[in-house]
Amino acid sequence: MLTQIVEVGGLGLIIYSLILEPILHKPGKVKALVAIPLIFPAITQSLLPLSAVLTIIVALCYYRKSTEGLEKQLKPAALAFLLLAMAKIINLSLFWSDTANVFWSKILADFGVVWSIHHFLLLVGAGILAVWIWGYIRFRLQIQIFTIIVGSSLFIFLTITFFFVFLLLRNLETDALSHLRTDVNVFQYSLNRQQMEALSDAKAIAQDSGFQKAMGENNSDALYKITSDFMLSQETDFLTIASSSGEVIMRAEDRDRIGDNVSEDLVVKSAFIGNPLSTIVSNTSHSTPEILIKAASPIKNKGVVVTGFIIDSAFVDGVKEVTGLDVAVFSNNIRAATTFTAPDGKSRFVGTTETNSEVLDTVLVKNETYIGSLSILNRPYYTVYAPIKTLGDKTIGMLFVGKPQTTLMATAQKSVDSTFLVSIILMAISIIPAFFLSKYIKENVKA
Fold this sequence. Notes:
Blueprint: H1 2-20, H2 36-44, H3 50-68, H4 75-91, H5 102-108, H6 113-137, H7 141-206, H8 209-217, H9 220-234, E1 238-243, E2 248-251, H10 266-272, E3 277-283, E4 290-298, E5 303-310, H11 313-323, E6 326-331, E7 334-338, H12 357-365, E8 370-376, E9 379-390, E10 394-404, H13 405-446
Helix pairs in contact: 1-3, 2-3, 3-4, 4-6, 7-13, 8-9
């Protein structure tokens, strides 16, 4: 914002000086009407940013002075400002770089086609302007000395400013990634707490006297009422009762789905030998895979209770509410739950895959945590991916936490603005002694 204010102010001063300065006409030539003020209101009412509008006006002013009068040497300046104005207009399209359309997001992305054209026009325009300025000052000693002094001061101030901004952004980036590592640990702690809660629920229902009585009497109605009431009160997502042979005799979430056998389930096997167990598992039986917290507890040699939670959108939304970050849970490399939503704000990007080979190799193959910057759904993010491990230390998926890089820039903006403001003030102050010093040197050279 600060640089834009300075740029607009500078362009305004150039326009002011060009309008006040008379055109050098040939003797006897009638002065033409000034067209610039007539088109100015129409231009300023358009949707173009003010800096682009002013740059176009500067180009038109130089072009008018070079064509109506004798100052043909101003044509390069007109061309330079015209190219700079075109670059600014093209730069407007980059505001839509975060579009959900894949084609346009690639065209408008950093280092894409539009970005390259924008910077090419800036480079050519600045080059033409620099050559023109050098041609103007090379035979003027005082202006040369003044330009060298001011330019040197400008270079020093800008170097210090950019170095400070670079260090600031690096420190903020390092701090952001460090906090993300902590946040993913908080995420993992939440999953561990859910495992303990699921195991506690399984033990509670297995030891309930009313439940044991219903099991002993094979009273399915009483068993369904007790288990369904318990599931609702504890807010678990499923509650399954299996016999000592592993046959499902009751599912509180779906009473009619019984008769299948769960004896090969690892948590059920552990419960059969008297060891209550809770772990994280991946359920790939649905079109979109799920990550489940599953716990099992024995029922005094009568079977097992299996209960737990599905890590769904409500869970990741709760994590985001606490941390303020975007989060996701992956079954292998497929998003099973995520806070990322489509542009309509309703549907979520579940079922989509993570394709970054470095992430997949680090997390799913090496069982390590990945930390770095990535493009997620066409937006730059600082990210952390951590492995989700089940029994036997086997990785079955990934935890993701991410922070948009734009938030980091917003945080740094105030410090950057303050730094540029101080630099501009110091440069403005240095102009005064530079003018008198260049004048003094010129007078002594003449002497």
